[in-house]
Amino acid sequence: MFYWVMKRLFIGPLVKMLFRPWVKGLDNVPAEGGAILASNHLSVSDSVFLPVEVERPVVFLAKSDYFTGRGLKGKVTAAFFRMTNQLPMDRSGGKASEQSLGAGEKTLLDGNLLGIYPEGTRSPDGRLYRGKLGVAKLALATGVPVIPIAMIGTDKVQPIGKTVPNIRRVGMIIGEPLDFSRYAGLEDDRFVQRSVTDEIMYAIMRLSGQEYADVYATTVKNQLAAERKAAAAKAARVDRGGADAA
Q1: Looking at the chain, which runs of residues are DSSP E strands?
Q2: Rounded distance, CA 2 to CA 221, Å?
Q3: What is the per-residue pLDDT across 183-211, written as a single tens digit (0 to 9) for each?
Q4: Pairing with 79, which of 66, 155, 182, 246 sits 20 to 30 Å away (CA)?
Q5: Which residues contact 116 (CB under 8 A, 6 or more apart)?
């Protein structure tokens, strides 16, 4: 009930007034039953724009970091993600990740829509990155269809590191459902999981028009962070050298 009130009376009208989202393929979202909404991930605001346009409630698997932030900003962020019907997704691997996927699996088997970002994190540069296997594990374990989705322009609304969004129009393209019932009984096969994930990512790429990078976005983010740290350390050494010379 609280989610409906937030969506219909507060968030929904505000988003539509300010950002005027355009949508193609909305009728590809099933009117009932479980389904996975698999989207590219350009901005933290993706989890706001999509549920506003979809008639049925959407439960999102969001990275657990959003729920554990400190200080006022962290608490506000955590409260917002809980209010918008999102579940924490542990990406550390092992049992923690399996438990997170278990919560998503239950959501689907209960007949709900589950939103997931197969890349696992936001794109650092606008490209579409290699999908992680969680989306395939959920699809194969539950037998529900996967709906590929492309968010358009949300990275311009709220780039990484920006808190206050830019007011501009955004869009989304919702593709036709993908059926993986042909793999019934092979849900634990890693080759099948990778094949399903790649098929989903290819569908998203065709919808979004993004350049595809066959590497995990997390790997690229870690490399960029290491480069920034090295550059900062080098600059600090240069500054100290100049001070010593003076």
Answers
A1: 22-24, 35-39, 58-63, 86-89, 113-116, 128-129, 146-152, 171-174, 212-213
A2: 36
A3: 999 999 999 999 999 999 999 999 999 99
A4: 155
A5: 36, 37, 38, 39, 60, 61, 104, 134, 135, 138
